[in-house]
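Annex B. Sample input.
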Amino acid sequence: MSSQDVSQADFEQQVVAASFKHPVVIDFCAPWCAPCKVLKPILEKLAAEYGGKFKLAKVNSDENQEIAARYALRGIPSVKAMVDGKIVNEFTGALPESAVREWLDKIIPSPAEELRREAQHIVDAGDLDGALQKLAEASRLEPDNEVVRVDSAEILLEQGNADEAQRLLDSLRDPDILKDARVLQLKAQVRLAEMKEVGESEASLAAAIAANENDLEARFKLANVLIAANRAAEGMDQLLEIVRRDRKFKDDIGRKTLLDVFNLLGGQGELVATYRRKLAALLN
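Annex B, continued. Sample output.
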């Protein structure tokens, strides 16, 4: 069914839960509202025409004031699009059919996006190879879709293929995607995978530093070993010492690696805040 009346009793199931399968368009309306009567047949016509690409949920705002308050209605008709449990687009008032169609086209997933969503469900089922195949299909349909590449990199990392994940992450160009917290954390995870391949023991590296405090290569390798062993604070101390002794060492690798570690640790929290302050003090 592409269109149905929804109330407080079944809103969570018919709207919120359903939005994880396909977009849900919520039409907040009331029987006395003249503009609602104009918009309603347009929405119903398009719901039928789009053949299940979105679900139309009609909510009587007078009878379901708790839902209306939850979504802070400013007037009716109020139309909101929900995807994955979140409102992603909306408009208020009666629009002509052409404008509603244009609005819908912004929320209806492309064939590539549908494949990407399928891949997410396949990942949840534990089939990483099957998910990568779906994402490969999506990438063939939309070669410039960088979100597909990020999803693929995440799976590759989980499979232990850090080199291929790094290749995909290096191919990203969209400034908004590059600043996304998930991308920053994936890059940090690739960095961690590299750290685990140092191959030298903590004891031998510590001995090298004891013999020569300016052995920054040994300090850097020791930092990698410590961070890979979940001893982030000790590793960051070594990286700070590299920054203090020589900012130019390996193209400022001490500072750059610290930023990677901050991302690896989630970018926030007391530990990250403490070491951000320590780094800032060194740079000033």
